[in-house]
Sequence to fold (403 residues):
Amino acid sequence: MLKIALTGGIGAGKSTAARMFAALGAELIDADVLSREVVAPGSDGLRAVTERFGSEVLDSEGALDRAALAQVVFRDGSARARLESIVHPRVRARSAEIIAALPQNAVVVEDIPLLTETGAAPNHHLALAVEAPLELRLERLTGRGMARDEAQRRIDNQASEKERRRACDVVLDNSGDERALELQVQRLWRERIEPFAANMMSARSAAESEKLRFIVHDEGWEQRFEHTAARLRRIMGSSAVRIDHVGSTAVPGLPATDVIDVQVTVVALSAVERMQSALERAGYFPIVDGRDVSQSGRIPDIADPESTGGQQFLYGSADPGNIVHIHFRAMDGIGRRLAVLFRDWLRQNESARVRYAAEKEEWAARVDSYQEYRAAKESWFRTVGCPEAQEWAHENGWSAPVC
Ligand code: ADP
Fold:
């Protein structure tokens, strides 16, 4: 099952985009609708609300008087937090219940207005934000009957566009007409969501493109790493001792293939075996093609230049829009230290960076498959990069961060 979160400020067009996803076959879960359901007359949610806020938030029929409650909570941050502590866990429980009843191949789109505020984005396979300029949102909201100052006040109470952008994987631009939004939704569905869901069903990570292609340093790489790390932290908790961005995408100024390398330090590799099914549910699968994978999924550590028998697990994400390689390495493994050392050496030495970039260009001109490229890179790493980086570490008293 693929779980997608859809968020956006009020009036940005979340509900509009959600309808478009539903038309493409997504199962829709609307947090606004559920937040009403969990405080419906007779519910234990409503009982909890009246215990906290008194019967003045009820109307004459005994149902929740939302306008009266809004008056209380929009002026008082701590009252709002108390209300949220009643409503949010119940909404989460109810949506989990609905999701549990859906078929395995479902694509679920959850409309969650406060996704950023509640820090829930990493609980989903993909988080989407719908954006529109402030003036347009105010116009659209007043167009559907909301007073302008009320609309402005609600907007001021929500996370900023920047915060939402940082938390989400994809931004849908709703500054145009509805057709323009629909084209983005359809394209995202076809190019990313459908293949993502298909990969999940086949229990495989997304394939790298066949053709070797380098791109200049991309500002989005760090964010893609952060999102992956946040998801892995949710799944692994304290079993992940550290999560580091390694490889060429972690070195500003270095061209790289569009693959984010993530290193997860574990106390022992057996932790990864224990977590395999949780990782797979979150969309992370062992990478097998073209690599020497033993039955347990362990491979010789590709950052172990001396081939001392070091091992690692290598996983990839099922998301074709964020190709990542996740290297699980043990705390005392040589590969763990070298991956971080290599990154820091390149980050801090311009001449090393320039030489490495030039080597990469050579290989790119000479070979055209990832496999050949990897072989050339590993050989250079063993004979040149690693000894030089080791010497630099020695001279500068560099040591690998532990936790
Ligand atoms: P949200 O769910 O984010 O609060 P809605 O999807 O309800 O926002 O959109 C707010 C209002 O703006 C609705 O009346 C909707 O029909 C309208 N709307 C949304 N997107 C567009 C668009 N691209 N062009 C014109 N009106 C739009």
